[in-house]
């Protein structure tokens, strides 16, 4: 009975990931386009998505503190409330044509996304240690449904409330956030309760671990570069004259590619180790950038976005699994929230710059900027792997 209950908790988290992930997908599919319509200047088109990422960064540490003091269910409830508020406020902003109000809505949307991303670590508290990688990847696999649901939601509802394009989309996103809250009510964290009584090291000691530093670095590069490209992709396609329905479909395939590998990424990590999986992800990010630089057709955009999604999955999930090896049960919320804070803070920089690059320079320039940080992260992983191999030989 206990195993069945834990499995049910992981499945609930995966279902909630699907519903909640649709909100983020809607933002990425429509945020830059709506921004381009409402913004006073073209270079501010991606500012709403930048504010969305800023909300993620600002909310990460408070989310961790809330989970630590009041429990993860309370943090989840606050997140879902932010999700509902985001949809309602964004719809109002579109109706009255307020760029500032739309950006404010995106701030709350980012806070919701920060809570949703904690689902992957929460899943690890629902199972025994040997099943944590599998639970983590199972929850992220719920994003496959979000990848289909979000863009299709945008396509199906964007003209329902004419002439306020996408207003109905954000009202539907608010409903999805409310449904996610209902699904999360049955999640139980039995293993977290059993382990939380043990002590933890001071944060300054934890941060001295080189594997943790490299895990955070790879998480930053994987997520920042993915967000950097995805933020500007819909706008770039719009500038190139590609229909919005096709742009939405490209984002749909991208998000599916982000989460579909999660069905087996956990097993790949267990078999080949985190270093090899992270390196594979970084290589795919490079390939995505090169593909984007090679042409401006629909197929070029779509293939680049698919490779970008798979690369993110391997790089980010591998980095997340590496983080789990760097802390004890009592240290988990501090280390995990700090890890996510650093990642999202770095993403803010990428989001702010990608919009101006694609409007003032080119899509190829955006893709070119992906390569240097990915190479740096890859070198760090290779050095870590070589060091561990040497320790095994000497030990």
Task: Give a short synopsis of this structure.
The chain crosses the membrane at residues 45-63, 75-93, 99-123, 135-154, 166-184, 211-231, 251-270, 277-296, 302-326, 338-357, 363-384. The chain has helices at 2-38, 47-70, 72-96, 99-117, 119-123, 132-141, 143-157, 167-184, 190-195, 203-206, 210-239, 244-259, 262-272, 274-293, 298-324, 332-360, 363-368, 371-394.
Question: Could you walk me through the main structural features you see in this protein, from its secondary elements to its overall organization?
Answer:
- Residues 1-20 form the signal peptide.
- Residues 211-395 form the Major facilitator superfamily (MFS) profile domain.
- The chain crosses the membrane at residues 45-63, 75-93, 99-123, 135-154, 166-184, 211-231, 251-270, 277-296, 302-326, 338-357, 363-384.
- Keywords: Membrane, Signal, Transmembrane, Transmembrane helix.
- InterPro entries: MFS, MFS_dom, MFS_trans_sf.
- The chain has 395 residues and is mainly alpha-helical.
- It has one domain: Growth Hormone, Chain: A (Up-down Bundle).
- It is 83% helix and 0% strand.
- It has 18 helices and no strands.
- α1 (2-38) runs antiparallel to α2.
- The longest helix is centred in the N-terminal third of the chain and has 37 residues, at 2-38.
- 58% of the residues are buried.
- The model is unreliable at 1-6 and 193-198 (pLDDT under 50).
What labels would you give this structure?
single chain; 395 residues; mainly alpha; Growth Hormone, Chain: A; 18 helices; globular; disordered N terminus
């Amino acid at each position: 009975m206990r195993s069945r209950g834990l499995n049910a908790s992981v499945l609930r988290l995966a279902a909630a990931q699907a519903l909640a992930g649709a909100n983020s997908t809607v933002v990425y599919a429509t945020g830059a386009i709506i921004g381009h319509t409402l913004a006073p200047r073209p270079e501010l088109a991606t500012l709403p998505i930048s504010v969305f990422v800023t909300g993620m960064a600002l909310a990460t540490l408070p989310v961790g503190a809330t989970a630590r003091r009041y429990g993860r269910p309370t943090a989840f409830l606050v997140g879902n409330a932010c999700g509902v508020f985001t949809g309602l406020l964004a719809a109002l902003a579109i109706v009255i044509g307020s760029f500032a109000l739309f950006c404010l809505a995106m701030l709350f949307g980012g806070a919701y996304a920060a809570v949703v991303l904690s689902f992957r670590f929460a899943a690890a508290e629902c199972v025994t240690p040997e099943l944590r990688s599998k639970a983590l990847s199972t929850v992220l696999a719920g994003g496959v449904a979000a990848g289909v649901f979000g863009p299709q939601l945008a396509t199906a509802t964007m003209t329902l409330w004419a002439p306020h394009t996408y207003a109905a989309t954000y009202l539907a996103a608010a409903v999805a956030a409310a449904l996610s809250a209902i699904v999360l009510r049955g999640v139980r964290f039995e293993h977290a309760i059993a382990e939380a009584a043990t002590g933890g090291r001071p944060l300054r000691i934890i941060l001295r671990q080189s594997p943790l530093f490299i895990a955070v670095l790879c998480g930053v590069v994987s997520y920042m570069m993915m967000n950097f490209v995805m933020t500007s992709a819909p706008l770039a396609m719009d500038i190139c004259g590609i229909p919005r329905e096709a742009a939405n479909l490209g984002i749909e395939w991208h998000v599916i590619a982000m989460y579909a590998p999660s069905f087996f990424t956990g097993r790949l990590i267990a078999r080949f180790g985190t270093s090899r999986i992270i390196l594979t992800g970084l290589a795919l990010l490079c390939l995505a950038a090169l593909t984007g630089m090679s042409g401006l057709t629909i197929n070029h955009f779509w293939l680049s976005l698919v490779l970008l999604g798979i690369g993110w999955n391997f790089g980010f999930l591998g980095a997340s699994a590496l983080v789990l090896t760097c802390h004890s049960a009592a240290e988990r919320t501090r280390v995990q929230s700090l890890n996510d804070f650093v990642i999202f803070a770095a993403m803010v920089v990428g989001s702010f710059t990608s919009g101006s690059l694609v409007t003032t320079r080119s899509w190829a320039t955006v893709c070119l900027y992906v390569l240097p940080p990915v190479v740096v992260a890859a070198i760090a992983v290779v050095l870590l792997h070589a060091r561990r191999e040497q320790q095994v030989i000497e030990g």
